[in-house]
Amino acid sequence: MTKAHEEPGTSLGALLSSDMKAGETDATPLYIRLANAMRKLVEAGALEPGAALPSERTLAEITALSRVTVRRGIELLVREGVLEQRRGSGTYVLPPAERFEQPLAAITSFTEDMLSYGRRPQTRWLAREYANPSAQEAMTLGLSPGDRVLRLHRLRSADTLPLAVELAVVPADVLPDPSALGTSLYESMALAGARPHKALQRMHACALPEFEARLLEAEAGEPALFLERVSRTAEGRVIEFTRSYFKGDRFDFVAELNLLPDAADRQTPLPVGT
Known about the structure:
By secondary structure, the protein is of the alpha+beta class. The chain is built from ten helices and ten strands. It has helices at residues 3-6, 12-22, 30-44, 56-63, 67-80, 110-116, 135-141, 185-191, 210-215, 261-265, and strands spanning 83-86, 90-93, 100-103, 121-131, 149-158, 161-171, 198-207, 223-232, 238-247, 251-254. A six-stranded antiparallel beta sheet has the order 4-5-6-9-8-7. A two-stranded antiparallel sheet has the order 1-2. Strands 3-10 form a two-stranded parallel sheet. Helix 2 (12-22) crosses helix 3 (30-44).
């Protein structure tokens, strides 16, 4: 039984109706407003993990919404990982997903990041082979005709939780023995005297492709993050070209921003008393 049902006068229906009524002038679609109201109850603990929701029919009655609207609101929260629908059983509140904070100001490996969280990094190799580079890889890495690359395709997990599918490509002469690679590519590159010194990283939201979705135990089309990283040595040689798909509900990418000195100089002081 949820907290929302334990106290008289604070039923789920009353809480939802109150939240919906507060946003009556909001132009947001009703199913999104309903999802927002239910999400707020979950975050506040009024709907606890494992709690069963009333049926769509009951929710429609207590909120005065159509069953189609209720169904769409629930489906939105299911896609977000807030709720879970069990066939023949009902809809339940899921425990909050564990999220990992990924800093963008420093070059760190997946292994280093997971160890910092007290988790055990795991690697499932999908491919570990020398190959001819694609046109994009050859251009990005600045390779000459005939140069080969080491292509490393991996599923990265924390303990048993799949988090990312990563395709790293490095010039073949950097790591002559791929079988000696452990869980950390950067550690192996450092031993070879080719640890990345700086990198340019691009990130954008995407829909998870079917292949990566299967590996990440997700649904194809789910929101995900695609990262592309190009790393250089201290001498300026491009040493790594990596493309990764991250589960969107598992990571927060964090960057600390500072005002540029020249921009600070241009700031006009506000009048006293403003």
